[in-house]
Fold this sequence. Notes:
Helix content: 25-40%
Radius of gyration: 20 Å
Oligomer: single chain
Number of strands: 14
Shape: elongated
Strand order of the largest sheet: 8-9-7-6-12-13-14
Strand content: 15-25%
Amino acid sequence: MKTKVLVIDDSALIRSLLTEIINSQPDMQVVGAAPDPIIARDMIKQLNPDVLTLDVEMPKMDGLDFLERLMRLRPMPVVMISTLTERGSEITLRALELGAIDFVTKPKLAITDGIREYTDLIADKIRAASQARIISSRRSASVEKTAPVSIRNPLISSEKLIIVGASTGGTEAIKSFLLGMPSDCPGILITQHMPAGFTKSFANRLNSLCQISVKEAEGGERILPGHAYIAPGDQHLLLARSGANYVTLLSDAAPVSRHKPSVDVLFESAATAAGKNAIGVIMTGMGKDGAAGMAKMKEAGAYNFAQNEESCVVFGMPKEAIAHGGVDEVLHLNDLPKAVLGYLMANGKQALRV
């Protein structure tokens, strides 16, 4: 059975190109294309698609308004087709909060060639969406009401590090996790699969919500307690050491397993630089990025957590990490912050330089 896709975009060119790209895949087909959400509403009822692609900005009804109504009345997998602008990134992050599974950015220039270059990416996102678990924004927001528990041990906060990797569904999972972190938690390094231009908005959004400080990593920063550093969308983030301090390092090296930034790159650097002082967390995502790196972290003495299947949008990355033997505990997303902090406080005496 092929995945049935409904394309919703006010541009006839984009509708045509997306249809061509999707229909070129052996496991999916476009069953309809709508120029606006009003027409799309009727087509959803008639065609019963498995996945929607939805433009962010459209006439008659804004993409966000349509998405909000859709997720309330008929929740289904949605991949947003976004513009690579500051406003576009803010709207896209809001769409992910409302329940969209993932997004693809429209190329700004040479749009026909640009979209065709995106063929594999678009196909991957639709494939992931077709397998995704729809998690209501109301359910996922429940963790936000829990106040983080302070560690009250400067030794733990300065010596230990929390290393996080995620992909599909990760923006909301990371938000949930960071909301559970107190202002005196250890420094946190995060790789989330996301294109350039979106990670800065993502970091700023989290910074406005969390007790800790969140920023896009710049490279060369000393990693401080109560701070989280997010990999830029077009560079790998690594952990390094500079004398007595841990620092961030950015790399413009080639993609790893088609990902840049790559979770494996971050995890492997943590295994080398931090060893048993690292705590790994792998979250929702399609594919196996992070599985090999997490196994190396465990070999180096790190203690690792994985998000469980029930709370993942896509269980691929945690499942692969578990299969590779790199995971010590598998927990619901809502339980991860408390478990990580509990482990830190129980093992504070082990917070020694490696």
